[in-house]
């Protein structure tokens, strides 16, 4: 935005007032979908007979989100992950609040936002923290089924909103972001998925893994649909990049020589290779998160619900009273080791969220949140 005070652009749902506060008239804050969760993230997992280190696909069902809509009214918007309450409001990271007319419009949960912190507004504008992540409590109903072609292991029941956070990437995907233009109607009619092709990037596969649409045990016949759906979601959220002109080819170079490999086989091999690399990256991320959880346990207890080791370290250090803004990720673990070595273990376990805020006591919520 180059002007001082006005709409961000024609057709925008964002308005900036004369004091610099950002208002978003309507934006997606969550959506009905199937996401993957580690067993340890699911409330009451031991009583449900779930393995703490296994992955389970949970459905945020449309009817459950519709019933939960009022609980997402007038709750805090945070700039970082932290459990907050009336006793510990964390004013230092509270940057705004949701509106008072939350409504479910299949498949999205929509609400207004007000952001009053200049740094948070800057991160929204530059894309650094443009996606939204809701934190909420729920009851796990581990009855398996299928929803819109996707298998799931259980359903989130009795969802109660706790807060919304600004994050680089949330489980609900890149279409749940701080809207900057009028929300388009979604066409939910199912269409046949084309066969896989070699254009699936690691980013697309990573998005499918992050949202739970693709898992290590996804059936082969569901692979194409999952990847095409993930790419469609990403295309919706960002403009199509310009396609560079093809480089000129000197006759006789390897690219000028006909290949004996059928296009379909090359395409399938490319998809399998990309999936394998993405799965390896996901396993490495999961291992790093487990290491981080063990490392912070003496300081803050059991941390549940965050999506990266970086977030876990930052949360623990912030809870210990250390400012980690601008600290490079490589320095977080050494900082934590130093703090743990000089500070006694914190009393009691702490449960954290992918994003964190709280006006939760207005809804009678007294336990720590589970995360979207």
TrEMBL record:
<feature type="compositionally biased region" description="Low complexity">
    <location>
        <begin position="237"/>
        <end position="251"/>
    </location>
</feature>
<dbReference type="Pfam" id="PF09979">
    <property type="entry name" value="DUF2213"/>
</dbReference>
<dbReference type="InterPro" id="IPR016913">
    <property type="entry name" value="UCP029215"/>
</dbReference>
<protein>
    <submittedName>
        <fullName>DNA primase</fullName>
    </submittedName>
</protein>
<feature type="region of interest" description="Disordered">
    <location>
        <begin position="235"/>
        <end position="267"/>
    </location>
</feature>
């Amino acid at each position: 935005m180059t002007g001082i005070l006005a709409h961000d652009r024609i057709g925008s749902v964002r308005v900036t007032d004369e004091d610099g506060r950002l208002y978003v008239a309507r934006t997606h804050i969550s959506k009905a979908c199937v996401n993957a969760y580690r067993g340890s993230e699911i409330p009451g997992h031991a009583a449900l007979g779930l393995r703490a280190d296994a992955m389970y696909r949970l459905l945020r069902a449309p009817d459950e989100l519709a019933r939960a809509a009022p609980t997402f009214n007038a709750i805090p918007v945070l700039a970082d992950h932290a459990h907050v309450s009336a006793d510990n409001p964390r004013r230092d990271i509270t940057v705004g609040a949701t509106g008072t007319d939350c409504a479910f419009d299949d498949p999205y949960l929509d609400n207004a936002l007000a952001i009053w912190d200049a740094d948070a507004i800057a991160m929204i504008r530059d894309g650094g923290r443009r996606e939204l992540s809701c934190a909420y409590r729920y009851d796990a109903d581990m009855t398996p089924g299928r929803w819109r072609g996707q298998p799931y292991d259980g359903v989130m029941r009795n969802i109660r909103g706790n807060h919304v956070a600004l994050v680089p990437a949330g489980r609900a995907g890149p279409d749940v972001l701080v809207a900057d233009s009028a929300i388009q109607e979604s066409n939910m009619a199912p269409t046949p998925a084309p066969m896989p092709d070699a254009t699936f990037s690691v980013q697309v596969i990573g998005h499918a893994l992050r949202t739970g649409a693709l898992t290590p045990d996804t059936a082969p016949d569901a692979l194409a649909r999952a990847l095409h759906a993930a790419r469609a979601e990403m295309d919706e959220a960002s403009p199509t990049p310009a396609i560079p002109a093809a480089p000129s080819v000197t006759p006789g170079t390897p690219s000028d020589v006909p290949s004996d490999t059928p296009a379909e086989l090359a395409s399938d091999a490319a998809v399998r290779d990309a999936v394998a690399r993405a799965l390896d990256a996901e396993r490495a991320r999961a291992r790093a998160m487990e290491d981080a959880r063990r490392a912070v346990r003496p300081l803050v207890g059991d941390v549940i619900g965050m999506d990266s080791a970086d977030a876990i370290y930052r949360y623990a250090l912030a809870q210990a009273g250390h400012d980690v803004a601008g600290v490079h990720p490589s320095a977080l673990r050494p900082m934590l080791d130093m703090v743990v070595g000089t500070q006694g273990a914190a009393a009691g376990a702490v449960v954290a969220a992918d994003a964190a805020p709280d006006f939760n006591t207005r809804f009678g919520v007294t336990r720590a949140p589970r995360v979207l």
